[in-house]
Amino acid sequence: MIFLFSFLLGLALFTWIIKWIGWKDILDVLFNFSGYQGIVILGITLLSWFVGLWRWKFILKSQECEVSNRGLGEILFASFPITFLFTPTAVLGGEVFRAYSLKKRFFLPWDKSVASVAIERLLGASVLLFYLIFGAVSFVFLAETPLKNFKIIALSFIGLLVSGLVIFYFKCFKKESILKWIIKFLGIKNKKNNLPENIEKEIFHFFDHKRGLIWKGLGITFLKYFLILTRCWIIIFFLHGQSGILIALAIFFFVNLSHFFPFPADLGSLEALQVLAFGSLGLGAAAGVSFSFISRGADLVIAILGLIFLFKLGIKFFIENIEEKIYKIFNRKNKI
Asked: How confident is the model at residue 186 (pLDDT cuts 50, 70, 90)?
């Protein structure tokens, strides 16, 4: 019900923006975008995903977990349509599936599978913050028509990330339990369950700066986001004929801001924010909508590919669960 409501709300916003800008202006921009340019964008998108696979593989290797590239890649791609298409936000949602799939396919313990996903998210948030700060500053510096209250929005958005990361790294470097601090802060009674503590130990083990794992993880993550930023820069160049790193950073800020609206596939929110950003930067509102179409189109291709893997893994796990239940039933009968 929540998904349907968020989808309809996003669709209504999308429809209103298209009607306001006008299909003619949007298509005039899109018709200048050729097939080979689309292949370039898709190639960069896939490359960023393979860097993401490299990062996840590195995290698991640091936990002394050996997994195949093929199997891990299938899980990674299969999780994307869950996040991108089937949840109210386009950046969160597939984490549970990824942790479950790691345990199910590679027989990893829960603490390591969950921790690997959490570590990946923490690395992503850490590096993304760096890009967002430069993106917000770039927009303020370049905008011809600054958005009203933009500084408040940017500071709130970045401040939320900074606060969480500062608390995490402060506790992590001091090797103090964040979990116990959260439980105490929320007044939750601590039940006897070692799983959360074991997950936290795995995370602290990776983020121990003396071991050096964190720096390589941040380096790989920096490369992944640099490729995503490059995709923004190239799309702007293809649409407008010229671009610069500061413009790309500014647009990249609004791309990530759109993820925090509760609309599947950023439907409506991406268009709205790109119209504001492109218009303020003097690039044209129609180009902003076209940018959102092209970037979402590349992500949709990845999502469709992911659906194939999701269906394959879903069938595999379903059959395995049925076999486990049948095995348990026969065991009970034999004991009787």
From this structure: very low
